[in-house]
Amino acid sequence: MANDGAEAALPKPSNWNLPNAITVIRILLAPVFFIMLLVDDGQDGWLRWAAAVLFILAIATDGIDGHIARSRNLVTDLGKLLDPIADKILTGAALVGLSILAELPWWVTIVILVREVGITVWRFVQLSDRVIPASRGGKLKTLVQSIAISLALLPFPSLLGDWVNWVNGVFMALALILTVVTGIDYLVQAWRLNRTPPPTSPSSPSASPPSPQR
């Protein structure tokens, strides 16, 4: 009973905290990166390098804000929702930019974006019942996507030769496979949740209504 009282006394972390601020900054950096990438127009100039470095730094903050949130007890439902959305906006901007520059087939970008947008919409639909954080498979997918996109953004072929394109292709293919597989996994989980009947409240001799706390 004492432990229950101590847990109840713990204040709920505010949505206005450092991890969520870092996540919002990552979202705001996406259009800046996108403009820098397109302005360079595939010339592999300093803007291309700057755009690539900005993407890498922005996507790297995903691990930083998560570590801060967990270590300082600042995990919030808003953060669980915004964190994967920020990653999707940033990676989506990179994929669309690479396709506009004809450096990535449009069908690859479309497949990935359809999966990402679909899962994001599903998360919003589920908000009335629960907040669905990124799964372990989803986090691995994001990591591989980040590596693949970073390699595609960095103008290494102009310095090291065309063989780098093969390396980029392998990582992008792996990212595409993980994107599709984890998307199917989310759909399977959703189907199982919809089939699971809601838990029934145990019978009680008291006529008082059940507590709203779960």
CATH superfamily: CDP-alcohol phosphotransferase transmembrane (TM) domain
Major sheet details: none
Which radius of gyration do the C-alpha atoms yield? Answer: 21 Å
* CATH architecture assignment name: Up-down Bundle
Strand share of the residues?
Answer: under 5%
Helical amount: over 70%
Whole-number count of domains = 1
Query: What is the N-to-C order of secondary-structure elements (H for helix, E for strand)?
Result: HHHHHHHH
Give the rounded overall mean pLDDT.
80
Number of strands: 0
SS-based class:
mainly alpha
Structure annotation, total helices: 8
CATH topology descriptor: Four Helix Bundle (Hemerythrin (Met), subunit A)
Gap between N and C termini, in Å? 17 Å
Instruction: Tell me the overall shape.
Output: globular
Q: Spans with pLDDT under 50 lasting ≥5 residues?
A: 203-214
CATH class: Mainly Alpha
